[in-house]
Design goal:
single chain, 121 residues, mainly alpha, 434 Repressor (Amino-terminal Domain), 7 helices, elongated, disordered C terminus
Amino acid sequence: MASRLNNYLRPHRRRIGLSQSEVAFLLGAHEGGRISRYEKGHRIPTLRTALAIATVFGDSPSNLFSGIQTGVDREVLPRIRQLRARLEKKHKEQRETPADNRKLHWLDEHWPATTNPDSKA
């Protein structure tokens, strides 16, 4: 399986035909060196810059920075499973609150794959 890039900034930029300096201009930066550092993964842009990059390339930050997104998912999804397990335990023990019910309902709507420990997140 091919490894995921940390980000897809360079392929997007090259597909469009923009130089690093032109992307820097569109982002309001003064030089293309910062874009190079983002493309190589030496720097992670601020949220504001990541959103500006998404606007420039017409793609979502999670697609443009999918390698970073994958790492975040690996960190957060186990904690979502842990929270679900805690809430389900309270439910089984009949110690749940209305807020716990809302949380479980939200988890069921947004994270149904986390209910199955064999599922791949």
